[in-house]
């Protein structure tokens, strides 16, 4: 039976929407202002472009599925853009995580290192340290069953 263990965090979406509002608003203001110097217009275009990129990233993160990582008795199932990636417990060498500093949502990134040096990265994950500990527990249980 597959169990949901890793969920997306909405903190990054809110942060990107805030940056979109700041940079996009400043860029639009600079473009419609009555100051027509080349430098003023260039900065306006640059700020508007940064705002557009932040909006695109926020939408991308918003439309990701709610569950990013699932597990069963023998595998992890990680959501990727091109489909679900199956990671067998037997191929996992190390699991590490990094939590964003000063993040009230405790969001961060989970790193899964596999045999052969392949590395799977899951960003925008809610409570990555707890997910890492749970995966470590599943790995210990799986290793105990294999003996």
Walkthrough of the structure:
The protein is an alpha+beta fold. Helix content is 45%, strand content 31%. It contains three helices and seven strands. The strands form two sheets. The protein has a four-stranded antiparallel β-sheet, with helices on one face. It has a three-stranded antiparallel β-sheet with strand order 5-6-7, with helices on one face. Strand 6 and strand 7 form a beta hairpin. Helix 1 packs antiparallel against helix 2 (38-62). The longest helix is centred in the middle third of the chain and has 25 residues, at 38-62.
Describe the protein's topology.
Blueprint (H helix, E strand, L loop, with lengths): L2 E5 L3 H22 L5 H25 L4 E5 L3 E6 L2 E6 L3 E8 L7 E8 L4 E8 L1 H19 L1
Antiparallel strand pairs: 1-2, 2-3, 3-4, 5-6, 6-7
The 3D shape can be described as: elongated
Largest sheet, spatial ordering of strands: 1-2-3-4
Our count of helices gives: 3
Query: Helix coverage percent of residues?
Result: 40-55%
Q: Let me know the average pLDDT.
A: 88
Sequence of secondary-structure elements: EHHEEEEEEH
Q: Give the termini distance in whole angstroms.
A: 22 Å
Quaternary form: single chain
Strand content: 25-35%
Structural class label: alpha+beta
Our Rg estimate from Cα atoms comes to: 20 Å
Report the uncertain regions.
none
* Largest sheet descriptor: 4 strands, antiparallel
């Amino acid at each position: 039976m597959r169990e949901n263990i890793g969920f997306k965090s909405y903190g990054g979406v809110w942060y990107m929407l805030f940056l979109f509002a700041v940079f996009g608003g400043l860029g639009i203001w600079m473009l419609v202002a009555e100051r027509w110097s080349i430098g003023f217009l260039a900065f306006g275009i640059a700020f508007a472009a940064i705002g557009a990129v932040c909006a695109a990233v926020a939408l991308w993160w918003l439309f990701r599925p709610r569950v990013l990582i699932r597990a069963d008795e023998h595998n992890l199932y990680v959501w990727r853009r091109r489909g679900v990636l199956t990671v067998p417990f037997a191929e996992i060498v190390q699991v590490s995580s990094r939590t964003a500093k000063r993040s009230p949502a405790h969001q961060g990134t989970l790193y899964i290192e596999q045999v052969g040096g392949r590395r799977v990265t899951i960003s925008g994950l809610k409570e990555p340290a707890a997910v890492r500990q749970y995966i470590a527990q599943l790995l210990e249980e799986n290793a105990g069953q294999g003996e």
